[in-house]
Task: inverse folding
């Protein structure tokens, strides 16, 4: 059953050349192991303690994505192994990731999280703050962090027109960043948007990475 679900999603993503991040937060390690045995390698977690425990227990070739709101004082725990941090929403956090990556002799890939949803509960930069940060020089001096794209979460709503508009806005932000700041950076190519309920729409708007949990593992209790 799990293998069939994963295969079905991969077939949907294939025409878009998009990556599947299996959102495994709150699910037991055994379920991740089962997905791993079906060929899944990218997993997303949103709690530091949980991702650390799972990384220690599960196969070492898993590609770990941290997809939740990350506090600066917790970066040190994931810096030794995390592959991509999706939700960078302040320059303070960017600097801390750079510092902890340097301590581990690594370069950590990150995404800038734009606030595209109307919900106050969603984190993320206001667009003006991101462009303001990138217009200044300090971020360019960071040697151990690599900005590889953007991330956003649409409003949780049945209004497809609103979600469509929000995804469209994130793609516009990505294109502007690419043209203005990262034109000569081939690594700046990722748009992380779309979850179990809205990823087909996200793919239509250029998503390169979808974060899917309940569709793979079942609804959380």
Result:
């Amino acid at each position: 059953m799990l293998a069939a679900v994963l295969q079905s999603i991969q077939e949907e993503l294939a025409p878009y050349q998009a990556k599947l991040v299996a959102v495994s937060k709150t699910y037991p390690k055994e379920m991740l192991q089962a997905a791993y045995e079906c060929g899944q390698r990218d997993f997303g977690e949103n709690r530091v303690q949980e991702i650390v425990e799972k990384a220690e227990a599960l196969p070492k070739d898993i590609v770990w994505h941290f997809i939740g709101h990350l506090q600066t004082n917790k970066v040190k725990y994931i810096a030794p192994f995390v592959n991509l941090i999706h939700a960078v929403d302040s320059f303070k956090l960017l600097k801390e990731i750079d510092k902890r990556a340097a301590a581990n002799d690594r370069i950590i890939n990150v995404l800038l999280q734009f606030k595209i949803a109307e919900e106050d509960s969603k984190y993320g930069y206001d667009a003006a703050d991101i462009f303001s940060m990138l217009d200044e020089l300090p971020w360019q001096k960071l040697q151990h962090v690599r900005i590889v794209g953007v991330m956003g979460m649409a409003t949780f709503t049945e209004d497809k027109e609103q979600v469509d508009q929000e995804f469209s806005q994130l793609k516009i932000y990505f294109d502007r960043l690419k043209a203005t700041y990262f034109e000569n950076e081939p690594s700046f190519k990722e748009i992380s948007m779309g979850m179990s309920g809205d990823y087909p729409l996200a793919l239509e708007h250029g998503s390169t990475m979808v974060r899917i949990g309940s569709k793979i593992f079942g609804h959380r209790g």
Q: What stands out?
A: The beta strands are 19-23, 42-45, 63-66, 84-88, 108-113, 145-151, 190-192, 209-212. The chain has a mean pLDDT of 94.
